[in-house]
Amino acid sequence: MSTEVRTERIGTTLLITIDRPQARNAVNAAVATGLAEALDTLESDPTLRAGVLTGAEGTFSAGMDLKAALAGESPEIPGRGFGGLTEAELTKPLIAAVEGWAMGGGFELALGCDLVVAGEDAKFGLPEVKRGLVAAGGGVIRLPKRLPHHLAMELLLTGEPITGHRAGELGLANRVVPAGDATAVALQLAELVTRNAPLALAAVKKIVRAADGTPEPEAFAAQREELKTLMTSADVREGMTAFAERRAPQWTGR
To answer: Do residues 164 and 125 touch, judged by C-beta distance below 8 A?
Structure first.
């Protein structure tokens, strides 16, 4: 594991922390490799049900490390995108806990997560146009799907940041919390999510991805195929049995 990415198991959640505070947690090759390794751990360990991604010392991530990029380092992992995350197809829920700056690629890392918890004074922005670039780690592609057209275009064309409070108003954050509380609340949200069946959570993510930009008849057809597998699982039987017996289900992920 890269020394610039730390992981900690908290119950069934893996807390992943970008740990380059001296560089505002900007993503260089080492961070990208470390994030990819952490996500591999999350995906491969059946006792882990969700992940929380954050940054050390009050900053989520300032995005791509421009100095490292100028020196020839790549912040991307082939097939997995910026930071080893933005193009990865994860089966387990991932929650961004954003404090401080989430700029450029940092914002794109958050957009690559399933849920976002933001400190009220966090700053989200895509300033790539100010450097002659575009937000190619998912910003240009994903933001117009999350916001009305003109609001997305304002962020993309001006490069100006918005606060965590404004992100909540626009629906870019699931929770907006007092500064310093984002990770704790994200872990609480992860615990709420992971009470549910892991195979069902993975199926939801897969169906949502398949339906993106797909005509409804094709999306329903893909969903039916996913349900065929899900309905034969031990977890479905356990969920129904637990409901009938008025007890909490014991998921096995099988």
So the answer is: no
